[in-house]
Structure formats: structure tokens, C-alpha cells
């Protein structure tokens, strides 16, 4: 095994210890938790040890900056180290660690051949990609790209009423990096699905995200004694919500296999007491499809069910937030660049859609962006048993290094690099 | 209005201020909350002002004792002052306050005619009847009657991990009253249903509780990415739970109207994150009926649904706790005593079943017990808008006073009064 690979696997093993869940191979490292904070401090030391300058911005995005070409824009590479509760150790952490190691190797190369570097290198660990503790997901990259106001993000509270501002201060991760000039962005992630494993593909060239429609429903009924109240007198918010959960699953069978994914991940009941009919339930419900037409069709059918629930169960069903997007392409030039690199390295590769969102989804709207996948065994994701073989981790590192090398040498260079960053509010 | 009624309504108005929910007529006074503690301190003063000695036992049951006949057993009368979240101000609080005022009036009578009293008087405010913060419900009377071990109760924790022991200590309501001799028990409550209002009945003579079967289900699936995981690969615990919630409601329509009440009041999801398929859901599900046969039939049908959910949704469904009882009669002699009193007072009255459990359900297994109801407008219960007219409150007070008078004079007197109480653990 070469030195780069060995060094990566060693650091990767250490990195996976932060928030490790006892008796499992997984981690729990929700955004701005103690484990997230400890890992960030360790990561800072790792970056500094390789000559990078570490800075944070006001929403806690952590950057390792290496200036090779004074004053030039940066090629940014990374992902996120935060995790879902009781989750796998790969997910975003693999992207940050391979981004860092790609830059470590390239820093060495460019120090020996400074004439080849056109741009500087920056590693990023985005804040709160997962959105499990603080909503919405992809918070750090959304603020960085100006899609979410800084103050709105900082004021967001978790289930215990702790704000992002307070939580970041507790781990001392709010900083003052104001803005940086970004030439391009690259990210690698384990696939959250099993198509690549099934098709024998080592490097996924991500060319689009699935279309989606996400809802936050509020179902309102009326508190009542859950034993004594006559059944026709009840307006049961939990019953209304349960009908939507079941309807979401049944919707899937109305389309071709694989064309619609639906889910209800979060449901909260008030007052959630043994002998009280619930007066209010909030429910997150997602529709996802590779086809925007399927999403629109599923939306119509879901709204018909909502109307039926309103009528039959006497509850009010309100959409308190919704968010939708059509199939959303990654820039073709980035896909082609990734293909060239994979071909040069003789790694099997194919174009692949991503169902899940990534920080690159935000970045691709601002700068030339490349998104890569490596396979995940059985596609297991957001689960303690998530696993990717070392060979695939190292192949991904190699491909990412090749992509970042080309980007730093000037590939995909825009005429005017974007000036991005988290402006500190006055 | 006579002095007794005026005094009751004045004290009742003060009592309803503890835990009052702003902008409503309701209260939130969960067991051992600050509001519960403040009301108990006020109630202590009220009892002492009428010459009662106030003591607590080790599970926080609050007693006001009045010795009229040195060394004689007590007639116990009361209910509970704790409430559900955002609940009505009547519920158990009416029973405690009318119990106290019945005893205040009788204390006066018996002081003037000491020869009439055969037993002493005690008012009780049972701890945690509601079971919303700490399970199970009827905790105080269950410990007092030896049905629930004291240490098990004290070690019970709420959703924040606070134990009953800690919560009671915070409001300084754990005491050392060891045991008392109880001759009989009386309780009054607002009806949690609308049959009395519809039938024009002022005093309900409670002659039995409905049969019931209560379940705590644990539904186990597997954590997965809620967007990317292929639908056939999912084992969604929330979907399994939702199917049971819907099935519980649909079960009702398989029986004659009014013969089956079902409910799911509490449902907790793990990890309850926007993009994670739930791995575990706990769900409380109740079946209630005036008929034990209906319960048994509904149980079979529910188990068939559970099996279907296991098969079709790939989740495990486990019953982690269950508790059932058949139609459970109150002693006929107590019903007859209550009928006599209501007839003497020319108050309309009728026998009535209770769907909900009450502390009297525990007490009736130990001592002669009388349970009365007054009507509740539209049967609204466990809701901020719960309401009972003053006339009905006062009629109930009059009937309860009549019942307690007869009990104290020796009616229903058992040969050997029960020695009951919360033994302090060594």
C-alpha cells in the first residue's frame, strides 16, 4: 500500500472514533454536539499539521486554506462531518477526509511544481448538512451560498430550545471568515443506494438529483378524553396523521417500481398523553422521483387524500412548509471532467443520479462543481451498519485527487470566480 | 345562595387559578409540577383553616385529617388535583374541593352533635391520577392500596428523566404518614361523556367501569435513508405504527355504535429525523367497551392486524406491556346509598357506567365505596374548554355531603375497617 493510502486509512480510523456508538461500527455526531466539536478540534490539528490555515465562518463552516498562488481563488473540496442519530461512519465524513487527503497530496505536488497551480486549495467541513438536530439540512452551505439568511440559521432551535448560535458557541465554532473567492467545488460521498454495487461501478459520476416535493403538515384536531369521548365526537389529529403516513406508502404502488420514493421520517404528537386524543400532530412527508412528472402526479393524488382525511376525520390538515424541485442537473462539464479522470485511472465508472441532497447541490448553482460517488454495501445509509470497502474508499480518494488536481490546474475555470461566504451580520 | 355554597364557589375560583392557562378557562397542572406544588400548599392552608391536620404519605398523597371520635377509623373522601396538559379545570379538582367542603360542613354538624359521628373524616388529594407525566395513572391510590410498590413508583421517570422521587422532593410533598384505618371511601367527578346531560340526570350513581384492554406496542424496523433506500428494502417502524392507529379506528365500525371505543394517545418515534426511516416506535393503544365480550372479540381482530403488519411491512410488533379488565362493578350497597341520598335531596339521578378509571376504582376493592358523577357540558374532557354549570357543581356537593354524612354515621360500615397506607420503605 502506498504512503498516501496508508496515511488516509490511519486518519480515517481516528476520525471515525469521534461520537462512536459503543458496541457498533457507527457514530452519533449531530451538528454542534460535543462529539462534533471534538472532531473539529482534531481535524483542525490535522489540517494545520499539513500546513493549512484553519478558519471558520459565522455559521460554523470549517475551512482549511492553503495558499499556493498568492491572491488566487480557491478550489474548494469537502463535505460534512456531522451525522444523523445512530448513523454510519462514512456518509459525509468520508467526503471531508478524502477531500483533505486529496489536498495534502496535491499540496506536496504543487510545492514541487508551483508553475502548475493556477488556484489555491481549500478543504471544507460544512456545518449541519444532516438537519436532524437543526432544520433545514445543508444549513452551512445554504448560508455560505446566500440561500439562507445567517440570522435565520443562527436563531434556529433544536428540540430542547437550544439555538444554533448557542450550540456553536458551546463548541467554540463560530468564526469570522467573511468571504472567499471560489473557482470551483468538488465533493465525494458514498452512494446512498445500491445501484453502483449491483452494476459493478466504482466511481459514480453524479449528473443530477432526483426531483422532490417535501411537506411539513400540521394536523389539527381537538383534545378529548381518549376513553370516554364518543367516537363520532372525536377529531383525532393522530388518526389524521396516521392516514397520511399509510397513504404515502400506498402511493408508491401506483407508479412503476422505483419511480417514486415516499417517506415520513418525523412525527410529533401533542399532548402525547396516554388518555388524551391528540389535538395537534406535525408530520414531515417527502415525495422523491427521478421524474418531475411523477412528482406532480403523486402530489395531486396526495392532495386528494388530504381532502378525504379532512372530510372523513374532521381534522384540519395544513401545509405549514413545502419545498419542491424538479430533476436538477449537475453541470455537464464537471461530469465529463470526472469521466476523464476515472478513465485515466482505469476505474469503472458510470453516470448516476443522487436521490439525496448534498452540499454540492448548493455549490453547483454558484461555481463549476464535480460530484463523485463510491459504492456502499447494500446501499445501507443513515444506519450504524453503513459500510464501504477500503478498496472503494481509496479508489474514490484517487479519483477525487485527480479531479481536484485538474481543477487547481485550471479545468472548468470560470471567467469570473464567485465571491462567496457568510457575511457576518452587523 | 347559602353560606356553604358561596364558600365553595369562592374557594373553587381560587383553586382554579393554579396552573391556569393564559387566555383560557383551563389549567395545566401535571403531577408534581410547580403548579401542582403551589396548589397543594394553598390547599394545606385551607384545610388547616378549617381545623384539619394535613399530612402526606411517601408517594405524595395529601390528607386532611379531622378526628371527631378519638381512635376511630376514617371516612375518606376526595379525588386528585393534578391535570393533563392543557386540560379542563374541573376533572379531579372538583372532587377534591367538594370533598373538602363536604367535610367542612359535616365537621360543623358533628361538632354540634358529636353523638352522631361514628367515624372520623379525611379529605384526600391523590398523587398523579392522570399519568400524563409519570406512568401509570392512578399512581398515588395504587401505592396506597398496595397495588403498586412504593419504590417502583418513586423510581418512575418522566420524559426528561426526572424521577417521581425527585419531582416530589422539589415541591416538598413526600411525607411520612404511614397508614390509616379506613372505614369507607367516597368520590365525585364530572362525567367524561354526555349521557347524563342528554338524559337530564344531575347525579350519576356510578355502578361499574367499562371493560378495557390497554397495550403498549413497540414496533421495530430498521434505520435507513428515507430518500435513497429502495422502497422494498425498507422496514419502516412508523408505517407499521400508523397502520395500527388506523386499524384501531376502523375496528370501531365492526361493532354496534357505542360498543367499542379505541384510542392511540401516545406515539414516540426514533430517531424522528427528517431523512431517516424510523427504526423504533412505541405506541399506546386502548380498547374500551361496556362489554367484556366485545373487548375479547376486538382483541382477536387487532391481533390479526398486528400479524398482517408484521408480514406485509417487515417490521416486528411486540406488546411490551398490556393490562386488561372486564366490566368492573362498584359495590351495590354504595350505589343504593347514593340513590337514597339523591332521592332525599330530590335530585334527578340514574345509574351510570364510567368509561374512565378513577382513584375510586382502586379504593372500591378495599373498602365500601361510593362514586358520584355530575354532568359535563357536551361531555368535553381533557380539554381547556371542559365546563360544568355551578348549579350542577353545587348539587353534586350537596349529594356528596349527604353520602359522607351517612358514611360517617356508620352506613356501609364494615366489620373490620381496612388498614391502608403507603408503607415507607426501609
Automatic annotation (TrEMBL), chains A, B:
Keywords in alphabetical order: Hydrolase, Metal-binding, Zinc
Keyword Metal-binding: yes
One Gene Ontology MF term: hydrolase activity, acting on carbon-nitrogen (but not peptide) bonds, in linear amidines
Protein name: M20 family metallo-hydrolase
Organism the protein comes from: Leucobacter denitrificans
UniProt xrefs under CDD domains: M20_bAS (cd03884)
Cofactor annotation remark: Binds 2 Zn(2+) ions per subunit.
Chain positions recorded as Zn(2+) 1 binding sites: 80, 91, 189
Residue sites binding Zn(2+) 2 per the record: 91, 130, 382
Keyword Hydrolase: yes
Names of the cofactor(s): Zn(2+)
Sequence similarity: Belongs to the peptidase M20 family.
Amino acid at each position: 500500500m502506498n504512503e498516501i493510502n496508508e496515511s488516509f486509512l490511519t486518519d480515517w480510523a481516528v476520525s471515525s472514533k469521534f461520537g462512536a456508538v459503543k458496541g457498533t461500527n457507527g457514530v452519533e455526531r449531530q451538528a454542534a454536539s460535543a462529539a462534533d466539536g471534538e472532531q473539529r478540534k482534531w481535524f483542525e490539528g490535522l489540517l494545520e499539521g499539513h500546513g493549512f490555515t484553519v478558519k471558520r465562518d459565522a455559521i460554523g463552516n470549517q475551512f482549511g486554506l492553503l495558499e499556493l498562488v498568492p491572491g488566487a481563488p480557491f478550489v474548494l473540496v469537502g463535505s460534512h462531518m456531522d451525522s444523523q442519530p445512530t448513523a454510519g461512519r462514512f456518509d459525509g465524513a468520508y467526503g471531508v477526509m478524502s477531500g483533505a487527503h486529496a489536498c495534502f497530496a496535491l499540496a506536496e505536488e504543487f510545492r514541487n511544481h508551483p508553475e502548475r497551480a493556477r488556484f489555491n486549495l481549500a478543504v471544507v467541513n460544512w456545518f449541519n448538512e444532516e438537519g436532524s438536530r437543526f432544520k433545514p439540512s445543508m444549513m452551512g452551505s445554504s448560508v455560505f451560498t446566500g440561500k439562507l439568511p445567517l440570522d435565520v440559521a443562527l436563531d434556529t432551535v433544536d428540540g430542547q430550545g437550544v439555538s444554533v448560535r448557542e450550540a456553536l458557541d458551546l463548541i467554540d465554532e463560530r468564526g469570522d471568515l467573511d468571504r472567499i473567492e471560489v473557482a470551483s467545488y468538488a465533493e465525494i460521498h458514498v452512494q446512498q443506494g445500491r445501484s453502483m454495487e449491483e452494476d459493478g461501478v466504482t466511481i459514480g459520476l453524479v449528473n443530477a438529483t432526483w426531483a422532490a416535493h417535501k411537506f411539513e403538515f400540521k394536523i389539527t384536531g381537538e383534545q378529548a378524553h381518549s376513553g370516554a369521548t364518543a367516537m363520532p365526537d372525536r377529531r383525532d389529529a393522530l388518526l389524521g396523521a396516521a392516514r397520511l403516513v399509510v397513504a404515502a406508502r400506498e402511493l408508491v404502488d401506483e407508479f412503476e417500481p422505483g419511480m417514486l420514493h415516499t417517506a415520513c421520517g418525523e412525527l410529533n404528537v401533542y399532548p402525547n398523553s396516554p388518555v388524551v386524543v391528540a389535538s395537534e400532530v406535525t408530520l414531515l412527508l417527502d415525495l422523491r422521483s427521478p421524474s418531475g412528472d411523477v412528482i406532480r402526479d403523486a402530489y395531486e393524488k396526495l392532495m386528494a387524500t388530504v381532502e378525504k382525511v379532512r372530510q372523513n376525520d374532521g381534522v384540519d390538515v395544513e401545509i405549514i412548509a413545502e419545498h419542491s424541485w424538479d430533476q436538477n442537473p449537475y453541470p455537464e462539464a464537471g461530469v465529463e471532467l470526472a469521466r476523464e479522470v476515472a478513465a485515466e485511472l482505469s476505474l469503472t465508472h458510470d453516470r448516476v443520479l443522487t436521490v439525496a441532497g448534498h452540499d454540492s447541490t448548493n455549490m453547483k448553482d454558484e461555481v463549476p462543481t464535480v460530484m463523485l460517488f463510491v459504492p456502499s454495501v447494500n446501499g445501507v445509509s443513515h444506519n450504524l451498519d453503513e459500510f464501504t470497502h477500503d478498496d472503494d474508499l481509496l479508489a474514490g480518494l484517487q479519483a477525487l485527487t485527480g479531479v481536484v488536481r485538474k481543477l487547481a490546474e485550471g479545468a472548468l475555470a470560470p471567467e469570473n470566480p464567485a465571491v462567496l461566504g457568510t457575511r457576518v451580520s452587523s
